[in-house]
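Database export, one record per block. Field names are fixed; values are copied verbatim from the stored entry.
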Amino acid sequence: MFLSQQHRYSGFITPLSYFTDLLVINLFTYFLPINFQNPWLFHSYISIAWIIISFKNEFYEVHRYSKVVIILRKLFTQFVFFFLVLYAYIGFFKQPLMSRLALGKYFLLVFVGVFALKFLNYILLMQYRSLWKGNIRNVVVIGKSKKANQLIEVFEERKEYGYKFKRQFSTRDQNFDIITCFRYIVNNNIDEIYCSVSELKNDEIASFVNFADNNLKTLKFLPDNKNIFAKKLKFEYYDYLPILSLRDIPLHTSLNAFLKRTFDIGFSLFVIFGILIWLGPLLALLIRLESKGPVFFIQKRTGFDNKEFQCFKFRSMTVNEDSDDKQAAKNDMRVTRIGKFIRKTSIDELPQFYNVLFGNMSVVGPRPHMVKHTDEYANRVDKYMLRHFVKPGITGLAQIRGYRGEIEKESDIQNRIKFDIFYVENWSFFLDVKIIVQTVVNAFKGEEKAY
């Protein structure tokens, strides 16, 4: 197995686009005498309506390989529904004094403003990738079929897509070795792997899938009539060339990532200013009175994209040399009296809301492991690295299902990873809420492995 740290790209573009578009639709109301009676009601209405329509229309899901016609279609759909919602305001809220003509002019003004911003953003991103070589993804192609060669032409000719073609491997070459191929991908920081299905055997396809899963690489296929997997596959088009995407991670969608990050910031601020601001000093005093050492325990953990970060906790043990290697066990002599209480109630995890605020963690996600354990399990547990496709969490699906704390037997880590992968592939906002509620319930009830 090979382990690498893959570079991911910023998710600021979609939130910034949301902000500028909402700014346009709200500010332009003051350029015309619309005569709305309740400004707050009108602004709230059009803002919420715009967000809902955008979500249903996937208005902000514009990929680097998206064609202009797709953007035009999204603009048309977006504004057809926005027009209907805009004029519905008059009837819903009984606004007889509102000027229909001014409202129509406002609609046209917003359309021109958003249209201009949308295409300006699209053109600037293409120029950024093409001329300044920014937001680039390194790619390799496996296979020398006609479609594989066409794909390489797309990568090399369409610089605005932001793909840097590094190497082509032919499975028909006598010197082809799949392990050498994997080593090249790791050593050259390859982001995406494109496989020609017609040139790969089923066991080679399985090897590529396992390698990509365990090394946080994006794997895509050039399709033919071979039945690849009994999984849901997603078609994408690069120019006019169809590409199959094997795994769809919900949190890699910009809107979902934005929604989760917004919730994380709001929830962490609530906990920090509602609980930690008064509980923190009290616990600090109790911790220092019982044993010498720092109030906080700071440890390197493995997070999103296999990157290390400093994870914060209230110190629950006496200062010892085994803290970075050995998990807490039942009746662990290192745990202090106050430590037993805060571990049992999970209060020791509260400082991780600072990690959430700083962007290292999320409120919900796979629990971050010690660096030593990540290295160990990555080589022992199949698809272990898939959990690093999302940010680690203070709580997670595996934890509420009883797989928290000490790993006592092999089935513990296997089941934990099973739930982590399910979470990564099936994330939803309501799943996060359910996990948070269950975590609070478990904290009050007490858990068997909370020691």
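Remark 1: Residues 13-130 form one domain.
Remark 2: Residues 3-10 have pLDDT under 50 and may be disordered.
End of record.
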